[in-house]
Write a structure and sequence with these properties.
Strand order of the largest sheet: 14-13-12-11-7-10-9-8-15
CATH class of the largest domain: Alpha Beta
Number of strands: 15
CATH superfamily of the largest domain: Dihydrodipicolinate Reductase, domain 2
CATH topology of the largest domain: Dihydrodipicolinate Reductase, domain 2
Number of helices: 10
Distance between the termini: 40 Å
Largest sheet: 9 strands, mixed
Strand content: 25-35%
CATH architecture of the largest domain: 2-Layer Sandwich
Helix content: 25-40%
Oligomer: single chain
Number of domains: 2
Bound molecules: nicotinamide-adenine-dinucleotide
Shape: globular
Length: 339
């Protein structure tokens, strides 16, 4: 295959990063950018004057010269644009969340399968070097058996008016949780509150818990109404505990040699038979590289070499099912919902 020709649809605050990234990738060629807003197209023209821009994305999608479409528009438009792209034979990367509706996501997954096209979802953090490191140590059981995970993704940040904090932030945490916990998510519960846009019912803060078939639980807090900027994961294993703090510049992962051995418990003297260990803290050296560049490279590599992306359409659908369940639970005061 010649260098795939790529267009980016949606060049807003996040999509512009895709424009910059795909423009710089050596194995593909950026051949167009679409956005509805003139100011966003002007920004593209200013920085990349040779790249054609269009308000109407159909002009690119109908062009047989275009091989690949990257969609970074607002979530409610993902389905229609991705469907148009797949129906016109384009490989497709769609930002998270894949769609807002499970049936729609299933339709995209099936369309891509039927037409032998690559469908990938922008679960960016799966391409973060620290998450790759976590995956290795979890799979090798270096921390023993996984017991539970909790995450925080909070700050005082961009308040959205169409999607709530769950849909805006939690796809990242859920995608990491599903990736690390080698088991199916079976149930989810969520509670939260609306403060800033009460009439629209947009949740500013959400606490969710996912229950996995193997007994692991994963819980997360997401908010754009918080004094701290925190992007942190804590994984508790039976032998060791690990933190991934994405706000740390270099020392993103810490492995704590801490745990409690309950394997020889004699129930008549329970407390005495639990053996605590509290050892060293290891900070592994991780070669950090830009996740977005890795994600884009992986996508193009999968297209050229007919590989299945790590965050393929099915992965997008799995994350979506948890989001949909969490949303239902939010609306039912935290009632657990089967996934
Ligand atoms: N992976 C990540 O880390 C990450 C981070 C931020 C946002 N996102 C995702 O990226 C997407 C965009 O988010 P954003 O913050 O850039 O939003 P945004 O509102 O800043 O940008 C969306 C852009 O899409 C354009 N658009 C909408 N419909 C269009 C159409 N039919 N044709 C052409 N352009 C169209 C809009 O004009 C707008 O400029 C969302 O799905 C969001 O969840 C992902």
């Amino acid at each position: 295959m010649n260098k795939p020709k790529v267009v980016v649809i949606g060049s807003g605050s996040w999509g512009f990063n895709h424009v910059r990234t795909f423009y710089a990738l050596p194995d593909c060629e950026l051949v167009g950018v679409s956005d509805l807003v003139e100011k966003n197209l002007e920004r593209v023209k200013k920085q990349f004057p040779e790249i054609p821009v269009e308000k109407d994305y159909q002009k690119f999608i109908k062009n047989p010269e275009v091989d690949v479409v990257v969609i970074a528009t607002s979530a409610e438009t993902h389905f229609q644009i991705a469907k148009d792209a797949l129906l016109n034979g384009k490989h497709c990367m769609v930002e998270k969340p894949i769609t807002l509706d499970i049936n729609e996501a299933e339709e995209l997954v099936n369309l891509a399968k039927e037409r032998n096209l690559t469908l990938m979802v922008g679960h960016l953090l799966l391409y973060h070097s620290a998450v790759e490191y976590l995956k290795k140590i979890v799979d090798k059981k270096s921390i023993g058996d996984m017991l539970y995970i909790y995450s925080q993704r909070v700050n005082l940040g961009k308040v959205r008016s169409k999607e709530n904090a769950l849909w805006s932030f939690a796809p990242h945490d859920i995608s990491i949780m599903l990736h690390l916990i080698n088991s199916n998510a079976v149930k989810v519960s969520a509670t939260g509150q609306t403060f800033l846009q009460k009439r629209k019912g947009i949740y500013d803060v959400v606490f969710f818990t996912i229950y996995f078939k193997n007994g692991v639980i994963a819980t997360g807090q997401v908010s754009w109404l918080d004094p701290h900027k925190i992007r942190k994961f804590t994984i508790v294993g039976s032998k060791k505990m690990v933190t991934f703090d994405d706000m740390e510049m270099r020392e993103k992962i810490r492995i704590y040699d801490k745990g409690v051995d309950a394997s020889n418990v004699q129930y008549d003297s329970f407390a005495e038979s639990l053996i605590l260990h509290d050892g060293d803290i290891k900070i592994p050296k991780i070669n950090l590289s830009e996740p977005l560049k890795k994600e884009a490279n992986h996508f193009i590599d999968c297209i050229i070499n007919h590989k299945t992306p790590l965050s393929d359409g099915q992965n997008g659908l799995d994350v979506l099912k948890v989001l949909v369940g969490a949303q239902k639970s939010l609306e039912q005061n935290g009632q657990p919902i089967e996934i």
